[in-house]
Specification:
The chain has about 130 residues and is an alpha+beta fold. It contains six helices and five strands; from the N terminus they run H-E-H-E-E-H-E-E-H-H-H. The protein has one domain. Helices cover about 50% and strands about 15% of the residues. Helix 2 crosses helix 4 and helix 2 packs parallel to helix 5. The two termini are about 15 Å apart.
């Protein structure tokens, strides 16, 4: 399992600075992609919500309590500020990269809908 800090660091190393809402949607989408392709989750994140909305319990707090993440108040986003190499297993990395590519083309609402309308989304909440 990939920690929330590690997967967030990987995403932010590629995307620079994102709002926690988008980070959580990319993580959830990556999990759904891996569940579909490989039959397993890649994090132990606790998803809270229902059919239309959700959040990852403790994600924002975990990132903001780490010296490797910085909140840019003026931009409303979180940035990864450490230089550590982020090693993620190949299959999981492919799922995360695919989720990032999908997110790049979607607004916040579209990205949220992609996640919550996914056929496996309920399994994340369970």
């Amino acid at each position: 399992m990939i920690s929330l800090q590690k997967i967030s660091a990987y995403i932010l190393a590629k995307k620079n600075c994102l709002h926690p809402f988008r980070i959580s949607r990319i993580i959830a989408l990556a999990e759904l992609i891996c569940m579909e392709k490989y039959g397993k989750r890649i994090t132990n994140a606790k998803y809270v919500g229902n059919l239309g909305v959700f959040y990852i319990d403790g994600l924002k707090e975990e990132l903001l309590n780490s010296p490797c993440f910085e909140k840019l108040e003026d931009q409303g986003c979180i940035k990864y500020v450490c230089d550590e190499e982020i090693n993620i297993e190949k299959n999981a990395r492919a799922c995360i990269d695919e989720a990032i590519r999908i997110a790049e083309k979607a607004s916040d609402i579209e990205l949220n809908n992609i996640v919550v309308q996914h056929k496996l989304f309920q399994k994340l909440l369970g």
